[in-house]
Amino acid sequence: MSALTNENILNALRAVRDPDLHRDIVALNFVKEIKIEGKKVSFNIELTTPACPVKDEMKAQAEHAVREAIPEIEQLQVSMTASVSHRANMQAQPVLTGVKNTIAVASGKGGVGKSTVAVNLAVSLAREGASVGLIDCDIYGPSIPLMFNINEKPQLHNQKLLPLEKYGVKVMSIGFLIDSTQAVIWRGPMASGAVKQFMTDVDWGELDYLIFDLPPGTGDIQLTIVQQIPLTGAVIVTTPQEMSLADARRGMAMFQKVNVPILGVVENMSYFVSASGERENIFDNGGGKKVADQFSVPFLGEIPIFTKIRAGSDSGRPITDSEPQSEPAKIFGSIARNMAAQISINNFSKKSAPIEISLGSNNQ
């Protein structure tokens, strides 16, 4: 009897384990569409994100496992696909019904390059094949129009605004709706209301990831977002020096208090490589890893000071699009994949309840 059967192929693939979810790919139901034609075999491995950091390794392990278990196979084709996972309560919410995962990119203080990180993570995910959106939540100082070099205004369709799109990312910002020289002089509730409208009155369609580029701090806008939707998680951006880390700790404590999972910490401006190739720790180094360890959350990676990262932000062409093979772009890509892996782990391991925030009996 031939060993070329679906059952034997599946048995062979049980040796391949997802290193993050700690189960074999058969038990995880990743193996799809097994086809046997004579001595030719093909099947798909459907991952929980196209930005899986071990995608190539898993494919190689699957090919090796099947060929070793069934040597009579003459031709083997393994295709890697993805269906992005989502939190159990995301699609039951009244807003953003087509969005699978919502990610806040935050910092305790300004000037740490948070928007640069948010933009390059969004572009990196889009380049991996994910459908991605980004909301500029900084009403008073919107930077996303400049960083994407978008000067148009969004159109209205079926009583909803259509987000603008560039580099594969759908984008919305208050900067698209007001004159670039106009100061936004609004009280907190008005700014929070604008962010709320970006969720309720914009047609985002179907998205794997929607990234919220938050303003610095822990104020009204942050609370508005966590009250409106069950955030998948938050990414904290810091620089290495203690002044930035102190504010990052406060931001992390805020998210923990309102039951938002922290996906990890990113250390920006981590180091500088001089023209001679020497590494200089201008703002110290290792603080991001230290604060991640302190809060028992993942450290997603460190980003160097690199002139082309700054230039890309100023010109509206993120380095992850303009020079995707450069070392800084690869670092952003690695951080995006680490973040996507952490989202998959969280979605798989726990079904979080909707967030309820108690502001105290004396607050309205």
Protein described:
The structure is a single chain. This protein has 364 residues and is α/β, with parallel strands linked by helices. The chain has two domains: 6-82, Fe-S cluster assembly (FSCA) (GMP Synthetase, Chain A, domain 3, 2-Layer Sandwich), CATH 3.30.300; 99-349, P-loop containing nucleotide triphosphate hydrolases (Rossmann fold, 3-Layer(aba) Sandwich). The protein contains eleven helices and 17 strands. The protein has helices spanning 6-13, 55-69, 114-127, 144-148, 188-200, 220-228, 242-257, 287-294, 307-315, 319-322, 327-349; strands at 17-18, 23-24, 31-37, 40-47, 75-82, 99-106, 132-136, 156-157, 160-161, 164-166, 169-173, 207-213, 233-238, 262-267, 272-273, 279-280, 299-302. The strands form five sheets. Strands 10-11-7-12-6-13-14-17 form an eight-stranded mixed β-sheet, sandwiched between helices. A three-stranded mixed β-sheet has the order 3-4-5, covered by helices on one side. A hairpin with a 2-residue loop joins strand 10 (164-166) and strand 11 (169-173). Helix 1 (6-13) packs across helix 2. The chain is globular. The termini are far apart. The model is unreliable at 351-364 (pLDDT under 50).
